[in-house]
Amino acid sequence: MIKDHFRHAVTSGLPANSFENDSTQHVATKLLCGSALLQAGLTQLLSGTCFDVLTPTSNGLATSQRSTQSEPALYIVDATGSSEQAIEFIRDAKRQHPAARVMAIANQFDCQAVQSAVSAGVDSFCLATSAREVLIRILELTMLGERILPGSFVRTLLNQELAHSSTAEIIPLAERRPPDLKAQKLSPRETVILQSLMGGDANKVIARKLEITEATIKVHVKAILRKIGVANRTQAAMWATGNLRETGPSAGEFHEVRRLS
To answer: From 65, 187, 196, 235, which residue has the greatest number of CB atoms within 10 Å?
Structure first.
């Protein structure tokens, strides 16, 4: 686990990474942890890197020993305990600093947890079993605008795709078109279906949710694949993870979409 690398972080003399090479670059980093032990461990792990952990003061402000920046550019959220608490941490962070990046740390991630976290504002994920080097690389890539998904989530999507391979909706290469976001926008129903694909739902499950036939769902899925320019359900779910957060309808709109269908 990450805490098992505390001593390694202090004694191993790890080579400097690309961010550490620039001594003038510091990323104001705020830890949102339900565990004091994890917070202390992460602070130790990030010591000597460009990720400058902000410490709270008695007046409620955050300060840094290496820079005058008090507003965080990066949040690291503890998702090892209560998922509800973690989601609340994330939402509070994004309300206060919408432009800040967010990375979640947990012992494991399932599809529902990833979907909920992405919807709340998480950019990347890191397993608590990861080595220090992995943690730092994920943070670096996150600050560069990349989204890092947990391997377990990707494997689940791939396994689901294999399970549905006999009936998967595949668009032949000759029929594929590059996505045109101006001319081809997802309808409310297609957006709801895409959100369900992101959660790993099968066609029959989606059909029950929308109270329509499974054959109709298949038609919609094929239309979705064409519009976003992907070949199969797995690629559609991965595309949605990075692009649907700002455009998808809220959960409260779901019943309205079904009523109008």
So the answer is: 196
- Return the amino acid letter for 38: L
Closest CA to 31 of 99, 84, 95, 100: 100
The verdict on residue 160 lying in a domain is: no
What phi and psi, each to the nearest 5 degrees, are found at residue 31? -95, 130
Does residue 195 or residue 69 have the better pLDDT? 195
Token output for 32: 């949102």
Q: Is the pLDDT of residue 110 over 90?
A: no
Strands 62-63 and 74-78 come out as unpaired
Terminal C-alpha separation, the chain: 48
Q: Which domain holds residue 236?
A: 168-260
Q: In the listed set 85, 118, 151, which residue is the last one of a domain according to the structure?
A: 151
User: What DSSP assignment string belongs to 93-159?
Assistant: HHHH-TTSEEEEEES---HHHHHHHHHHT--EEEETTS-HHHHHHHHHHHHTT-----HHHHHHHHH
Mean pLDDT of 166-181: 55
Residues 108 and 144 in one domain: yes
Task: Give yes or no for residue 252 having a pLDDT over 50.
Answer: no
For the chain, state the CA radius of gyration: 21
Section 101-119 average pLDDT = 86
Give the pLDDT confidence of 222-251 residue by residue, as tens digits.
888 888 888 888 888 888 877 765 444 444
DSSP tag of 45: H
